[in-house]
Write a structure and sequence with these properties.
single chain; alpha+beta; 4-stranded mixed sheet; 3-stranded antiparallel sheet; 6 helices; 7 strands; globular
């Protein structure tokens, strides 16, 4: 029997507003021990910012910690539903070369995040995980 995303996701994802500074987002990542925060405008997901985004889009472009995450996040994030099978997430991760997916309800409200590590614990993923890990970055 296939497992659902709801069963393996991490609930209550860390969220920031688009006007949050990248410095504050980075501090949240450090404090929470995470590499991704969701960017939400009210209850609507508008983007995802990762620790890698902070390096590539902020530090490498010589922007400071007071820059806003609105300039650093990936808009139009690839998402999954809590009712999707884990295979859906694995396929998206493989084809898009990404390691974390926001989990959103039908109304667009973010309720969780599912990572490659979460899926590795519940699926026979050896070959798939290798493909994702060795995929070229999407930038």
């Amino acid at each position: 029997m296939t497992r659902k995303i709801r069963e393996v996701m991490t609930g209550s994802p860390v969220r920031v507003r688009p006007d949050t500074t990248v410095g504050d987002a980075a501090k949240l990542m450090r404090e929470q021990g995470i590499g991704t925060v969701l960017v939400a405008d009210g209850d609507r997901l508008v983007g995802v910012v990762t620790d890698r985004d902070l390096v590539v889009r902020v530090l490498a472009e010589e922007h400071g910690a007071d820059a806003k995450v609105v300039g650093a996040y990936s808009s139009e994030p690839v998402c999954v539903s809590p009712e999707d099978d884990v295979v859906v997430a694995l396929d998206l991760m493989r084809t898009k070369a990404i390691r974390r997916l926001p989990v959103v309800e039908d109304d667009g409200r973010p309720i969780g995040i599912v990572s490659l590590g979460d899926l590795a614990l519940v699926a026979d993923t050896g070959r798939v995980l290798n493909e994702i890990s060795t995929a070229e970055p999407d930038w």
